[in-house]
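Re: the pair you flagged

First of the two:
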Amino acid sequence: MRVLMISIDKGLVGANPLGDVIERHKRYGEFVEVLDIIVLCKRGFKRQQWSERVRAYPTNSLSRWFYYIDGVRLGRKLFGKKGYDLIVTQDPFVTALIGLSLKRKFGAKLLIHFHGDFRRFLRSVINQADAVRVMSLGQKEYLVRAGVAADKICVISTPVEVARFEYWKDEEGAVLDSSNRQLFEEYDFVLMVGRKDRVKDFDTLFRALNLVAERRGRVGLCLLGNYTAVEAYRNGLSPAVKLIAVPFVQTKDLPAYYRACRLTVLSSYSESFGKVLVEANASGRPVVATATTGAKEIVKDGHNGFLVNIGDAKALAEKIMYLLDRPEEAKQMGRRGQLLVREKFGDNTRKVINLWRELVK
């Protein structure tokens, strides 16, 4: 099976990747003959070969207005050299338009992913796809209400290597340096993993942590992503909150941070899935999340974590304090979370590959 993917994730062509995007695609490559990825991006990137079967090709466009033209041109060039059985697109917008153009030209099957909780999409393009993959049941229900045929929609969330987080062991403290280790012992740290993006609603997160610091003190925020400490304090985080901001973390080091923190928070106002919640539970830690479509797929309120209303900083703070003040109950929630995510999300790579094979067959 030969697969052409169309993506907007610049981590695949050399930008700092967040999470396991490269490892995830290398695993896909183990099950196919070829996995080539066109990445829509501006100039300055180089072709990358991540494994014997996985390669990423940047469009190096003059601006985003040229993404469609450059994506189609590059796709036709690659099809002419290699030929593909399946086209997979990351979203129902420009990547899907490129995929549809290539489908019409070369006759390959087209699978459109909804890697975001999109409430608007190009319906005419969706109707011409061979299948649609969404990350949660809530997304599927929305699409069905919007007129997409239910039998065209498959629910498979983003694969997470659950065992890597569940069975991780600290190898002689190689990840966290001595100064950070001391801080983690002195303060009750909450973890947030995510890029500096409006959808993550850092404003609500900061207001919630400020309330926690005001009421109980000695709380810390460990921020993994591209948010700096200067930006966080400038944008509303109280100096009373001890902050550790880590701009780039290698995938293999992520479990150390989940284990070092007491719980993980996700304050987004929109999530199609919420992979960090699965990783946190797999690490044995409870979670507190806003009730997005994706979070409701993962978190059973009061079982492996808590759900609060989107944008409600006070409720977020109360649930954080509840878990910090009850370490044994938090530990039990974390254990229940391990069992839940192992059963529900432990084999999603094979589910994705099986979907590809069914479409091609």
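Second of the two:
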Amino acid sequence: MDWNGEFALNGQVDEKILKSLLCHSYFSKSYPKSLDRFDFSSDTVKGLSLEDGCATLTAFCASTVGKALDMLPIRPTEIIVCGGGRHNSVMLKEISIRGNVKAIPAEDRGFRGDAIEAECFGYLAVRCLKKLPISFPNTTGVPVSMSGGKICHV
């Protein structure tokens, strides 16, 4: 973890690696689409210093936000950022610059930025308990609307 982007702030983005990462086929696919946790790894910045690796990965994350927004029918001029990344001032700055969008921390709009993701997963869990769908063909590409996961009672 790069607390508040302190390592990235002191590093230089390797633009060649960044360009290579952004050429991944995922970024040119139309929606619906998704990634697996194995699609990208820290090996992409192997050999860089800690600071340069953090700077490059931060720039990569920020650039992917912009690429995703470019695919929307109407591109927003502002996004609300929640989760831990919003505590990283370097990430927010990079999203604004490389993503070409104003990145606003959730609290600036009256939301609880640390709670939104947990609340979302709680909502999805209740839908699963009620056997209601949480994934739909037009959002994730599943063949039919479906519920998710398995409930384990211990």
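The chain has two domains: 3-109, 115-154.

-B.
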